[in-house]
Design brief:
By secondary structure, this protein is α/β, with parallel strands linked by helices. The chain has a domain at about 70-195 and about 255-305 and about 325-365 and about 410-425: Aminopeptidase (3-Layer(aba) Sandwich), CATH 3.40.630.10. About 50% of the residues lie in helices and about 10% in strands. It has helices at about 5-15, 15-50, 70-80, 135-145, 165-170, 190-195, 200-210, 215-245, 265-280, 310-320, 340-350, 370-390, 395-405, 410-430; strands at about 90-100, 105-110, 120-125, 155-160, 285-290, 300-305, 325, 355-365. It has an 8-stranded mixed β-sheet, with helices on both faces. It is globular. Bound molecules: zinc ion. The site of zinc ion has 5 residues, from strand 5. Zinc ion binds near residues 129, 132, 183 and 290. It holds the Pfam family DUF2817. InterPro entries: DUF2817. This is M14 family metallopeptidase.
Length: about 450
Amino acid sequence: MDRLPTRQVEPLQSPPTGKKSKFPIKTAGIALAIVLLIELAGPQVLLQLSKPKPAPAQGSPAGLSYFPDSYEASRQRFIQGKSTLKSYGSGIKLTSYPVGGENGLYIDAMKADATKTMQNLIILTSGMHGVEGYVGSAMIELFRNEFMPKLDPTTTGVIWVHAANPWGMKHNHRYNEDHVDLNRNFFDQPDAYGKQQNPSYQVMRSFLEKPSPVGNAVNHEVAFFGDLIGEIIRHGTGTISEALLQGQYENPQGVYYGGAKAERSTQILQHIYEEALNSGYARIVHVDLHTGYGPRDQMSIFSASKETMTEEQASQAFQYPLVLTPTSKDYYATSGDNTEYFYTLKQRLQSSADLYSTTFEFGTMGVDTWGSVRSLRNTIDENSLYANGSTSPITEQIILNRYKEMFDPSDAEWRLKAVADFRQAMSGVLKYKGMLAK
Ligand SMILES: [Zn+2]
């Protein structure tokens, strides 16, 4: 008897083996369910998060109506705006240059010369980076409505350029129909393209250019952040910034590719700048309108490298809180920039005009680390989608939504602040240059 119980108990004590095998199966089952849930539900969550904000239903403030919904609607409004320039008599010229590799795409340039003396010329250019043209068009519309009544048509002429990159605007793409970043494409010498080098881009190339179609959104997201951490450890954040901001001229499928020759859009803009410099105006103010870079809640006036004022002096002169000049900590130079080209052209033409060519940059993602990382992700993803497509329609939509939001934010609050900043900056610059009554 003494022994029996032990014999009987032994097998009862051996559930260890049974417990051992059951526990991992259950754990694995739960883990699998969680993974499946994340893989299946995660993309839907990311898709919802990427969607644009609905427009305010009622009582929407007037400034919001400046923002167009489509390239076509924006263009139509721009062309109709001609009729409101009556104070210029019959001297208004609209030129529509077909460009962009498909029917119905144009660079539209509206020009009205001063009726008596060629004193001041104000040039606004928009949509150099396609998708940024929606905000650019809004600001030209604002200028037409709110600034034109304050200008003196006898002394002040205007040139407005709608959609320097119409293909990119229509298709919500930063680059043009040849996948060229137009604001890296302006050089005075035809052989300049081959001379540009960006070693940091070549170091980062495998991270910036992906070889295969984009798949499940969650897996893709996890892989991106994993790769990013690896790249930061290996090369540092400085190399990533250098790779991107300068532009590159060696990888036509890559991001921020500046091209191998002057694109047709570039040639048209160069022609417009040349005509402006040759038209005999004493003072020229040129504002090129962009979105993306900089703090989300404050538009930046980004000076060309010829600017001699310090940040403080320029801020004081324009009565505007955020002006970046070559002395600023965050200032960076890009190759092939159109405002830089304008100054080089002035020099070559030996024009005596007092030229001020600058960029208004409406920040959208913010300048903190999280904003920079999301901006980088959206840039790489959109380029990868363009080059290789996607195996998942949901992932594709997430990428497209994020990209559009990055350059044309749907948030009403953002739009109203952009409108307020443009009013303040434009008034400041024009008053400083003596083009608006003080
Ligand atoms: Zn831009």
